[in-house]
């Protein structure tokens, strides 16, 4: 489903600029985060100094309001930066998983086709062997033996192809399993971080 969504023409046009856009937003979020850190440190220091100096209540409330805003900006920019990175990783894993599943399905069809062809050739080989056993002439036997050898070579060739395709299918299964494990780990990490975010709120 996600692969179909990513294959929409609009996304394919945006994919050319995706890395540039991602890096631009990352830089922007880092700048906002650093600015928020600077503001928090600035107003925290001012807050301490003015509290010690016993300033009037309006100025103290104004400084506390500025401190609250800077802390709010710090949390927003920090979590936005983190969630943007998580979103990028999630999209990458979804794309890899979809490609792995597609290649897995293609390999399965190849294996099924090769198996059917091998069964067909083996049935034909058995039929020819039965026909050969019924015929008694030596010339026909020789030509039948040549045909039999040819068919045996074809069967061996098909068995080798079937083995290659089975190996490729096994490799694709391993890759899909690895990608699924990665996505499950990412989901657990995301859930943990959301709980941490709720706790911090």
Describe the structure.
With 201 residues, the protein is mainly alpha-helical. It has a domain of 100 residues. The protein is 95% helix and 0% strand.
How far apart are the termini? 34 Å
* Low-confidence runs: none
How does the helix and strand content classify structurally?
A: mainly alpha
Query: Major sheet, described briefly?
Result: none
- For the residues shown, what is the average pLDDT? 82
- Give the total of beta strands: 0
Beta-strand portion reads: under 5%
Number of helices: 4
The radius of gyration is 34 Å
Shape summary: rod-shaped
What is the helical fraction, as a range of percent? over 70%
Order of helices and strands: HHHH
Can you give keywords for this protein?
201 residues; mainly alpha; rod-shaped
How is this fold's topology laid out?
Elements: H1 2-6, H2 9-52, H3 57-134, H4 138-200
Helix pairs in contact: 2-3, 3-4
Describe the structure concisely for a colleague:
The chain is mainly α.
């Amino acid at each position: 489903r996600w692969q179909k969504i990513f294959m929409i023409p609009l996304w394919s046009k945006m994919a050319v600029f995706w890395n540039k856009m991602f890096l631009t937003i990352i830089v922007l979020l880092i700048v906002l985060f650093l600015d928020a850190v600077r503001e928090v440190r600035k107003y925290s220091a001012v807050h301490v100094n003015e509290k010690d100096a016993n300033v009037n209540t309006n100025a103290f409330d104004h400084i506390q309001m500025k401190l609250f805003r800077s802390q709010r900006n710090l949390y927003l920019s920090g979590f936005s930066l983190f969630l943007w990175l998580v979103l990028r990783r999630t999209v990458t894993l979804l794309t890899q998983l979809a490609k792995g599943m597609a290649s897995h399905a293609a390999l399965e069809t190849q294996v099924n086709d090769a198996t059917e062809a091998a069964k067909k050739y083996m049935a034909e080989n058995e039929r020819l062997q039965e026909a050969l056993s019924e015929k008694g002439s030596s010339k026909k036997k020789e030509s039948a033996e040549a045909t039999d050898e040819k068919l045996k070579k074809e069967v061996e060739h098909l068995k080798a192809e079937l083995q290659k395709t089975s190996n490729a299918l096994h490799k694709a299964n391993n890759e899909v399993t690895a990608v699924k494990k990665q996505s499950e780990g990412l989901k657990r990490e995301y859930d943990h971080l959301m709980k941490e975010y709720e706790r911090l709120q």
